[in-house]
Design a protein that fits this description.
This protein is of the alpha+beta class. The protein is about 40% helix and about 20% strand.
Length: about 500
């Protein structure tokens, strides 16, 4: 038997088929763009993206190796927060509003006045903020009431893909938590939070644990995508949770370090830390896709900055390498200087993550000279994105969460130079699995749990996740980066007033 993992992200979708011993039998990928209909708006056009996702699944599911080892189950890893409005006939009704879209922000002050932050955190494990589905759903209800009324379900992307394949309208706990409407302890939608937001429970999918069977592949999906009819569809998880499973970060003391569209540090723990301590550090508490475990997300859009660098500084090379079947990122990473960058970057090109969730800033590249090469600019961007995460990383011991080792995941983890840079800045070893498609791997492991191939997530990880190599921090570089980090921390406050006026 084989297992299909589908990983739907903000900028692309991957579908991969794995044997139960962790060999990747096939992989397909499609990249798509975020739409910006107006300033501050950000959408995924689900109507055009869904056919691309179907084609990607078909390529992975119909490969020669997959045909020799038929798919026994599938599951989906996906981006969080964004929802797709659909009707009972499985029709897509409108685009999906992304987490960095400004719509709904206008309701946050009033929501904050009517719900104490401490109460919200104790129910949901998050504090009120712009990224979550709640504010976008309120905006849709107020500004597009006809759309809201005719929508039968607002589905997060993992639920949406499963639904379009034939599953019931269900969502796992880790994705449900990204709406700001989920009760962490009851493991269901919170009546109190729904009443607070004046949103309708019946328009949301049912909540289930990751690894639960939620349906089977329909005849239409089987014909379109080449997956055997009736294959179980298993509840997956939020992409960062699936990434964690797919790279082996499933127990206390470990953390996933995702290197994709978002740079995301995901420490794992088994008890909810003190709410006041977490709130003071801007940290959340959410379900892992591993039963009995929790995670927190420390993130920024560092991967988006790397993509911006690629499209701005290497547009021509991107076209030529694509035509030659080469990796543009490998070319760019080869240009990184060995020594630390002499530049200083403030990575506020878009809204930032914890601890401050900065919206009213702008990016800065300081220290440019005529002799500056583009490789040094890229390295400074990578350094600054890691510095941003280091601030929250250093706050973890204060709430009883320790990280002894990072497990690297995502496309960026293919670069030895980038992974070593992270180890040097954070002062912790990084372990890289042989298969870097951790999101699809994690989803496949959950599929295996759902169909009975594995008795637990831990068993699935033991059988499927194989380690490639370990990157240990260079003590000398770590000291140098600590000095640079101190300078970095002064840059934002120094320019704050100026950047807010831009």
């Amino acid at each position: 038997m084989s297992l299909l993992g589908i990983d739907v992200g903000t900028s692309g979708c991957k579908a991969a088929v794995f044997s139960t011993d962790g060999r990747m039998l096939s992989l397909a990928y499609v990249e798509y763009d975020v739409s910006h209909p107006q300033s501050g708006w950000a959408e995924l056009d689900a109507r055009s993206i869904w056919p691309a996702i179907q084609n990607t699944i078909r390529k992975a599911a119909t490969s020669a190796e997959t045909r020799r080892d038929p798919i026994a189950a599938l599951s989906i890893s996906s981006l969080g927060e964004a929802v797709v409005p659909v009707n009972a006939s499985r029709e897509i009704l409108a685009p999906s509003i992304l987490n960095f879209d400004v719509r709904g922000d206008e309701y946050l002050p009033g929501l904050g006045d009517s719900m104490p932050a401490e109460r919200l955190y104790r129910i949901n494990g998050n504090t009120l903020g712009s990224p979550y589905s709640l504010a976008k759903l309120i905006w849709l209800k107020q500004e597009q009431p006809a759309l809201y009324a005719r929508t039968d379900r607002f589905l997060l992307w993992g639920s949406f893909v499963g639904y379009m394949l034939g599953a019931d309208a269900m969502v796992d706990y880790s994705l449900a938590n990204r709406t700001l409407l989920f009760d962490l302890e009851k493991q269901d939608w919170s009546d109190e939070l729904l009443d607070w937001a004046q949103l309708d429970r019946e328009k949301l999918p049912s909540c289930v644990a990751s690894g639960s069977v939620v349906g089977a592949v329909s005849s239409q999906a089987a014909e379109t995508m080449g997956i055997p009819k009736g294959v179980p569809i298993v509840a997956g998880g939020h992409d960062q949770c699936c990434n964690s499973i797919g790279c082996g970060a499933i127990g206390e003391g470990a953390a996933m370090y995702g290197m994709g569209t978002y740079l995301c540090m995901v420490p794992v723990f088994t008890r909810r830390p003190d709410a006041a301590g977490m709130m003071a550090r801007g940290l959340n508490t959410e379900h892992h896709a591993v039963p009995g475990h929790f995670v927190s997300f420390i993130y920024n859009q560092g991967g988006v900055l790397v993509k911006w660098f690629r499209d701005t500084f290497a547009r021509a090379e991107r076209q030529t390498t694509a035509q030659a079947g080469q990796d543009i990122y490998a070319l760019l990473m080869a240009e990184l200087p060995e020594e630390e960058s002499k530049l200083m970057v403030l990575p506020h090109f878009t809204i930032t993550g914890p601890p401050n969730f900065i919206r009213d800033s702008s990016g800065v590249i300081a220290g440019l000279k005529l002799e500056t090469q583009r490789g040094e600019i890229l390295k400074a961007i990578l350094e600054a994105s890691t510095f941003y995460l280091r601030e929250s990383f250093e706050a973890l011991p204060g709430i009883g969460v320790e990280v002894g080792v990072f497990h690297a995941a995502g496309g960026g983890s293919k670069s030895d130079r980038w992974v070593q840079l992270c180890a040097d800045i954070l002062g912790r070893p990084f372990i890289r699995p042989q298969v870097n498609e951790a999101g699809a791997m994690g989803a496949a492991i959950l599929a295996g749990v759902g169909c009975g191939a594995f008795g637990s997530v831990q068993e699935g990880v033991a059988q499927m996740v194989k380690l490639d190599r370990e990157f240990n921090p260079d003590p000398h570089k770590h000291r140098r980066y600590t000095e640079q980090f101190d300078k970095y921390r002064r840059l934002g406050p120094l320019l704050a007033d100026y950047l807010r006026d831009l």
